Amino acid sequence: MLAALSLKACTSTSPASVAPPATAAGAAALHRLVADGAPGAASLVTWEGRPTSSHFTAAGVADLRNGRKMGRLDHFRAGSLTKTLVATVVLQLVGEGRLSLDDRAADRLPPGVPLTGAHGASDLHRVTVHQLLDHTSGLFNYTDDPHLAERLYGTGFPAHRYDRYTPTELLRIALGHRPTAAPGAHYAYSNTNYLVLGLVIRAVTGHPYAEELRRRILAPFGLRGTSFPGDSPALPAPHGRGYSRIDGREVDSTALDPSRAGAAGEMITTLGDLNRFFAALLGGRLLAPRQMSELRGEQATHGAYGLGVYATRLPCGVTVWGHNGDINGSYAQTAGTADGRHLVSFRVNTDAPAGRAAGTAVLAAEFCAPHRNRRA
Q: What is the pLDDT of residue 372?
């Protein structure tokens, strides 16, 4: 049934803009995401870092109940895209001399936060801020804990979707597991790292991490559609629905307590805000040159991840920078040229899109076409 849903495309490009029109390949890539099982898919392309030079395209539906289409201004949960904003603020604090990438995490945490696990197997005294940022800390990913995972996104989700968690509780679960590797040994993505970084920001600034992100990023750059809901389960209007496949059934997972994600993935945003933020970040308006170089540094992960961003090497040889994120009912990704002047953000309203290759096709359609490369 999903494969038969109609493809809808619309344009929001300024008459004065010289941006090239959306390609049929880009629209087809969104359609493929829907054909592969996503109820709806949408993308927003921005050229020259200007919202007025943009193009919005959508396929499928935002709400299976009433057939409502995906909207350009729709709010959605962005999952791990939160990490890029957190990393940006951490690097700002480094640039201000209030923090060092070589600092031990244990020395930069608020009082009362657990620092070691059972028998000292996991120990934040051995982990640096840099290792938290690039996922080389070896800390166990708390969302992989079997008991918690069942409640977060398994068959226990409907009964536990409104459970509230504190960062300390989630960190204690992570520290209860043996580390996946010695600190610095290799890259292993872990939500625990950014949970800890949210606590580091609080300790260094005296403010909750979300307050610092609002003050340093959201307010100065006009990200009015972005928020950090804490434990509020609702999405701001306008919004569609989010869907998860649990035990073979389609479950409406729109409403949930996002404290399960915290600094690792609680952010709510819009496609426009994602492009606005990444235009500012990649364009050098948020970090000094030294911190920008550190942001892109992938040496410790052998090209897998920088400090809150990663490079995607497309089949045509073009490299773009950004991040992705998923949480119950939502998957999103942003990628842009190194200077942030050409960006695409896309999303689907499910957390388990079957066609991740089609997601790469969305990026390839935008950045690999010859006329796109000339503008990038």
A: 53
Confidence class for position 155, pLDDT limits 50, 70, 90: very high
- Angle CA(11)–CA(14)–CA(17) in degrees, nearest 5? 110
67 CB-side CA count, 13 A: 6
Query: pLDDT digit string (tens) for 80-128?
Result: 999 999 999 999 999 999 999 999 999 999 999 999 998 778 999 999 9
The answer to whether the peptide bond before residue 370 is cis (omega within 30 degrees of 0) is no
The whole model's pTM is what? 0.92
Compute the Cα dihedral for 30, 31, 32, 34 and give only its sign: positive
Provide the angle, in degrees to the nearest 10, between the axes of the packed helices 356-367 and 24-35.
Answer: 170
Helices 191-205 and 167-175: angle between axes, nearest 10 degrees: 130
Q: What tokens were used for 241?
A: 């629905």
C-alpha to C-alpha distance for 23 and 194, rounded to whole angstroms: 36
CB 83 within 8 A of CB 259: no
- The DSSP code sequence of 245-267 is EETTEEEE-----GGGTGGGT--
How much is the pLDDT for 165? 98
Burial letters 146-159, b for 16+ CB under 10 A, else e:
eebeebbbeebbee
Helices (H), 60-166: 82-95, 129-133, 146-153, 157-160
Question: 44 pairs with which residues across the strands?
Answer: 56, 345
Question: So what's the pLDDT on residue 252?
Answer: 98
Residues that are catalytic: 80
Q: Which two tokens stand for residue 42?
A: 């949408």
Read off the DSSP letter of residue 231.
Answer: T
Of residues 161 and 51, which shows the higher confidence score?
A: 161
| Distance (Å, whole) CA 336 – CA 323 | 10
Helices (H), 82-239: 82-95, 129-133, 146-153, 157-160, 167-175, 191-205, 209-213
Distance CA 47, CA 157 (A): 40
Radius of gyration of the chain (CA): 20
- The CA distance from 32 to 41, in Å, is 9
> What CA–CA distance (Å, rounded) separates 115 from 122?
8
Distance CA 75, CA 87 (A): 22
Q: Nearest 5 degrees, angle CA 64-CA 32-CA 277?
A: 80
